[in-house]
Amino acid sequence: MKTSKTDLEAATGTRAYPSMQFDDKGALNAHVGAPGEIAALLGMKTPDAAQGVFYSALEALGASAKSKAQLVAAMFAEIEPRDGIEAMLVAQMTATHVAMAVVSEKMSHASMFTVRESYERSMTRLSRTYLAQMDALKKYRAKAQQVVRVERVTVHEGGQAIVGDVRHGGDG
Questions:
Q1: Using CA atoms, how far apart are residues 115 and 106, in angstroms rounded to an integer?
Q2: Residue 36 main-chain phi, psi, to 5 deg
Q3: Residue 147: inside a domain, yes or no?
Q4: Do the beta carbons of residue 29 and residue 21 sit within 8 Å?
Q5: According to DSSP H, which parts of the chain are helical?
Q6: Which residue positions in the chain have pLDDT lower than 50?
Q7: In sequence order, which residues have a C-beta less than 8 Å from that of residue 58 and are 6 or more positions away?
Q8: Cα distances (Å, whole numbers) of residue 6 to 10, 34, 121, 128, 162
Q9: What confidence score (pLDDT) does residue 151 get?
Q10: What is the C-alpha end-to-end distance of the chain, expressed in Å?
């Protein structure tokens, strides 16, 4: 019996993602299993927007695209964006991660102090950017629940105070 990708996904809990390959002319091809697979992978409603975000993520890799193209597809499957905003954040996070790896590799081969110091500054900036992107994704997914905490309440003689959740019934 032949197992489809959908059956495999259900059995293993993994998401399908395209296989990335370069042709003889150096053009990148995403081999997609089913129509709409990229939109589903990115959690987006429209295939055109999903393809735009997906290919923008690949283009952001620059010279690293040949060796890291599959990483982009896999990171979308791993982080599981739920909409276009999350998909764009995942694209940015992946590009930042790859940039950190590239700078780190260059830093390890730098022999001059000033060059190494420059790479270290770049690593620090990229690390902070990555952490900010992770925080943005976390906050976006939490849908920013607002909490008001009262530190001190003074109740004067004859006054009343309520301790606990106060909810308005909406009846006026």
A1: 10
A2: 85, 5
A3: no
A4: yes
A5: 5-12, 37-42, 47-59, 65-79, 84-109, 113-142
A6: 1-6, 8
A7: 20, 28, 65, 69, 72
A8: 6, 10, 45, 38, 54
A9: 77
A10: 64
Give the model's pLDDT for residue 112: 95
Query: So what's the pLDDT on residue 155?
Result: 83
Q: Report the residue count for the chain.
A: 172
Residue 62 resides in a domain: yes
Residue 19 to residue 24: CA distance in whole angstroms: 16
Give the residue numbers spanning the domain of 79.
5-142
Q: How far apart are CA 35 and CA 14, in angstroms?
A: 18
Rg (CA), the chain: 24
Residue 82 lies in a domain: yes
Rounded to whole angstroms, the Cα distance separating 11 from 89 reads 28
The pLDDT assigned to 118 comes to: 96
Q: Which residues pair with 21 in a beta bridge?
A: 29
What is the torsion angle, in degrees rounded to the nearest 10, for the CA atoms of residue 92, residue 97, residue 99 and residue 104? 160
What's the total number of domains in the chain? 1
- The Cα 100–Cα 91 span in angstroms is 14
Residue 63 DSSP label: G
pLDDT in tens, 111-121: 999 999 999 99
pLDDT at 8: 46
156 in a structural domain:
no
Query: 157: which DSSP letter?
Result: T
